[in-house]
Records
---
Amino acid sequence: MKKINLSNPHIEALEPYMSARRIGGSGEIWLNANELPFPRQTFDLDVSEYHRYPDQGPDQVQAAYAGYVGVNPEQVLALRGADEAIDLLLRAYCRSGVDSIVISSPTYGMYQVCADIQDAPVIDVPLTADYQLDVAGITAQEKTKLVFICSPNNPTGNSFNQEDIVSIVRHFEGKAIVAIDEAYIEFCPEQSLVSELANYENLVVVRTMSKAFGLAGVHVGYLVANQSVMDIMRKVAAPYPLADPCAQIALQALEPAAVAFMQQQVAEINVIREAFSSTIQEFAAVQSVLPSVANFLLVSFKNSDKAWQALTDAGIVARQIPHPRLQDAIRFSIGTDSEMEEVIKVLESLP
Ligand SMILES: Cc1ncc(COP(=O)(O)O)c(C=O)c1O
């Protein structure tokens, strides 16, 4: 068979995103993908219409999500996860080789990967020493088309100063889209910038049901924006982004009782996170624990290789972050009480 070598040169050179599933690992306790550790309640599926394509929205899901978020249904686009929203923004707003995006590392890796796929230049304006946004550095990027701000930020777990975010959105009015990735916002709902959509046409909010809603396996995300962005996004969205079973599950998970159930689980995770954080801060092997408002915690170790090995030996799969500033750090998704107890046992035994 003749080998083929026909792909775009920039795709040839592409480093794919190393998702938790791609990296893999072995063990009993999985704390590497910021998933919710509790299995969901069951859902009812109506299979009578599976010979038909689903509706694009579907409108019912978008309306339910709009009700949950507090915006108009026309401001919501349901997609295959927040990742699809990130990808569509890049494809819609950045011309290959011409229009740049701005990110603030260390942050979520898919902004870089989607930009690389689109061949859009990436300008990194790193977070400050205390992991906040460098507002002057970001607003100096006058020619950029798209600014990604992840708040709460993955992997650091903190949210950003709200006035900083708003001043960046205001600065880029009429010039660039500012996309706030609120994948973890349910763990600190008071930090959401959705209410600012009423003030800024260039603001976009990206959301997901993969985290607090505990539906990573269903993979439904949303883009929330104003009309001029929506008009563009509806042009580039796939004709049937959500499979019908996913749409049915999303709709049921947005019923008031299910939302209340989600909020109860979020409260539980926040309590487990705080208890875990204050316990491990005292351990000899732990250098520092970053304060987090999300369902994960970034922990620096005096010797992170030793800590990683001990966790691996105990069957605990956490996450190392490939960023020069985080070489001594390990990120732990917050699991159940008993899972975090197992982590505590391993960490307290380290010298
Ligand atoms: C900040 C952030 N945004 C988006 C995503 C992707 O979300 P989804 O599962 O909806 O594609 C993740 C997943 O880890 C994330 O951490």
---
Amino acid sequence: MAEHTPTHPVGGTPPGFLEPLELLYEEAGQPRFRLPPALATAYGGDLGFTLPCVYANFVASIDGVVALGPEYPSSGSAISGRKSADRFVMGLLRACADAVLIGAGTLRATPRHRWTPDHVCPQAAPDFAELRRSLRRAAEPELVVVTASGDVPTEHPALQSGALVASTVDGARRLDGRLPAACTVLTAGEGSALRMADVLAALHAHGHTAVLTEGGPRLIGHLLGEGLLDELFLTTSPVLAGRTDTSRPGLIAGLALLPNRPAWTDLISARRQDSYLFLRYRLRTPHAHDGLQAAP
Ligand SMILES: NC(=O)c1ccc[n+]([C@@H]2O[C@H](COP(=O)([O-])OP(=O)(O)OC[C@H]3O[C@@H](n4cnc5c(N)ncnc54)[C@H](OP(=O)(O)O)[C@@H]3O)[C@@H](O)[C@H]2O)c1
């Protein structure tokens, strides 16, 4: 459980000459992890979570595109323009997490990525390490990959350095003997999709209570469909992506919410750097009887 303390002025030099984010709004009474001063300066204040928590982090264009389509690998970087402030926030959110949860589509689309704080913001590595020590987290968050098919690129550097691969019985059979020795397979159900509640229960049993998901859109659809997402961090990148007839999904794929199942949110905080917005939302809990939420 995070401590609740009043906001206080932050000190410290931001790592690697990162320009601090400007805090535009923050709801009172937020949990605070007491970030190392350099991180608090760069983030424009403290950050924390009430645990257990499942929080997502995405970057989207102004017109709501999060992926440019299968022919463009690593499209998140294209959408963010590799903005250093976005990479810092990505690193900071990873540094707070016990586990980073992704779908196999994101793994396949991002061939050289590693889902660690240092990979996206190496200049803050010592400060991320200090934060993880203070939170009594392992040196790095555990990568968790969800796949029904078991069709994952076993040569991927993120798998080579060790991950938990959650799959169905059929998928686990397909993975048998193919994964690097550093990986563990979690068999969490039959059929074409795993119940994400089962996956999260297994993660909690491993002691993982701060779970960051970096998507992609289909995994977010499954998490929202089961009412399991607590918070969303969304970077709005000041770019228009556009669409022709190719698939360019928004944040959620495979699940329709409006008009019958609206997922209303509350804004927790808003930060800015240049023309980028860094928004943090809390998902409201649906009414148990019908999955509907009251409008704001
Ligand atoms: N802008 C951003 O911030 C951002 C963030 C993340 C990803 N992306 C982009 O999104 C694109 C990928 O989109 P996507 O929707 O395909 O990604 P995804 O959600 O990461 O992957 C979908 C795949 O994950 C597995 N999966 C998801 N939920 C599952 C469940 N409940 N049970 C079993 N398996 C499950 C399935 O794998 P199998 O097919 O193996 O069964 C499914 O086909 C990429 O272009 C990526 O770059 C953008």
